[in-house]
Amino acid sequence: MSYETNEELVKEELESLAVIFPELTVDQDHKSGSISIPIKTDEPLQIVYNNTIDHPLYSMKISDLPPILLHFKLPLGYPYDEPPEITLKTEESWLSEEKLDEIKKELINLWDQFHDAVLYSIIDYLISGSEDLFGVVDLKKPFKVATTKLITKLDKFNKGQQRKEFDSRIFTCEICQMEVSGVKMKICQTEH
């Protein structure tokens, strides 16, 4: 396939992705882009910080984790002869480099299967895979973090996301029966 044809295919793919994913940042000149994928698990994940094996110092359950950041660059041989160059990162480095490498291998495997335009499939994989942490973290087992600073940041991020979600919802006031935005409501923590 000619260089001009590849250029046209890449340009079309990037333009289409920018429409499908408005949060995607695309640089047509450098054939690159990036997107931040929110992480919200189906089931709450128990996060623990241990100073010993058997006795966690801190433990909490959270569903919202800092996003995974995907950056890609398309080489001249993309889409038929070369895979996209992919970099994955997480804010606060909550997911280890080894786990990010496992995810990256799965993304490159998508290209290996088709040798075609796969950026949509890569982004879709990350979005749908975020619900179970891409299969690289066992949601049934406690997720161990290395520092109290990290567990504090994860807790703060989770609470911030829960607040944003609450604020964006509409509730019916139990007293006046009017619909009220979550921004104007208070969250009450009750145990009954």
UniProtKB/TrEMBL annotation:
SMART domains: RWD (SM00591)
Species for this entry: Ambrosiozyma monospora
Top-rank taxon, per record: Eukaryota
Gene3D superfamilies per UniProt: Ubiquitin Conjugating Enzyme
Residues of the RWD domain: 12-133
Name of the protein described by the UniProt record: Unnamed protein product
